[in-house]
Amino acid sequence: MQGLHLTADLLDCRCDTRWLVDADTLGSACVAGAEAAGLQVVGRLFHAFPATPDGAGGVTAAVLLAESHLCVHTWPEQRGVTIDVYVCNFGADHSAKARALMASLEALFMPAQAQRHQLQRGRMGAVPA
Questions:
Q1: How far apart are the C-alpha atoms of 38 and 18, rounded to whole Å?
Q2: What is the pLDDT of residues 62-101, one digit of tens each?
Q3: Contact 39, 68 (CB under 8 A)
Q4: Parallel, antiparallel, or unpaired: how do β-strands 68-75 and 80-88 relate?
Q5: How far apart are CA 114 and CA 91, in angstroms?
Q6: Mind telling me the catalytic residues?
Q7: Fewest CB atoms within 10 A around its CB: which of 7, 12, 13, 111?
Q8: In this structure, how many other beta carbons lie within 10 angstroms of the beta carbon of residue 73?
Q9: Alpha carbon of 124 to those of 9, 45, 85, 120: distances in Å?
Q10: pLDDT tier at 122, thresholds 50, 70, 90
Q11: Alpha carbons 4 and 69: distance in angstroms, whole number
Q12: Whole-angstrom Cα distance, residue 116 to residue 45?
């Protein structure tokens, strides 16, 4: 059960709008980022929400990893994004891979502000942060 769970709330993202509204484009970037970090993608689901009176609909990109998961949610009308990366460290420590994936996604969105959190899960014998 032990692992590292990273979250980031990205505010005032200065990226191209397509990263916030195009499910396939964002999903491809998520898969590529996970693979570049050395994580194994085993499933994926990308969903675009319909437009609202406030503007274009957001996107949810969920990537199942052999090590656990990545999930990204966008709010284009607010230029906001939340990212969730969780890796189990069963058999090997994947913490550096999780951090690399998070850093690559944060760079993609170019937030003016970011609120980051990390949680060591299943503390029994957990690797320190």
A1: 26
A2: 999 999 999 999 999 999 999 999 999 888 999 999 999 9
A3: no
A4: antiparallel
A5: 31
A6: 68, 73, 88
A7: 12
A8: 16
A9: 28, 32, 20, 10
A10: confident
A11: 11
A12: 24
